[in-house]
Specification:
The chain is of the alpha+beta class and 174 residues long. Helices cover 16% and strands 36% of the residues. The chain is rod-shaped and about 95 Å long. The N and C termini lie far apart (73 Å).
């Protein structure tokens, strides 16, 4: 008999504690939490070789992988502000040493509805730094970059030699 009484007392203890915990409760709040890290990634971009710069209307376009799960801005800078001669960017005599260009960026963004954002920068504008914004959207479908060369400097054309420019794109989530 004593053994049976002890068993009843032990079995009753947990349910008494649970009954006391809910007495008078009519509402229970549960907080759920989680997080997703912000992510922005840009694919690699091959160098653009325009070949013979004496030809007019030269341009190149390339599709670039781009994914950003938060609204963002891009800071775009051109190192020289033009495609310039390696050793004589100002040219020599009547021969110029620079070819201005324009850089166009186009990409679809979502807000949740889709929108196409576009912007065209002149090379001199990129020397100071141009800003491209997603207008509060996110990007998941890449972007298109297009470079169009302008009219070269110099009354007699361009100075012979190699020309170069480096464009840096920095993505800043906000």
């Amino acid at each position: 008999m004593i053994f049976l009484t002890i068993m009843i007392a032990i079995a009753a203890l947990p349910s008494l504690a649970k009954a006391e915990e809910i007495v008078g409760q009519r509402k229970v709040e549960i907080t759920l939490q989680g997080a997703i890290s912000e992510h922005c990634a840009i694919g690699s971009i091959a160098n653009m070789n325009f070949g013979n710069l004496e030809r007019q209307g030269l341009g190149r376009e390339t599709r670039v992988g781009f994914d950003c799960n938060i609204p963002f801005t891009m800071m775009i800078r051109g190192e020289r502000g033009a495609l310039t001669h390696l050793s004589m960017p100002n040219g020599q005599g009547p021969y110029g040493g620079a070819v201005p260009y324009s850089l166009a960026i186009e990409m679809p963004v979502r807000h949740p509805a889709s929108e196409m954002v576009r912007r065209i920068f002149g090379s001199s504008e990129l020397l100071a730094g141009g800003v491209f914004t997603s207008n509060g959207g996110i990007a998941t479908d890449g972007m298109v970059l297009a470079v169009q060369l302008g009219r070269p400097t110099g009354e007699a054309g361009l100075l012979a030699g190699d020309y170069t420019e480096t464009i840096t794109i920095t993505v800043n989530p906000f």
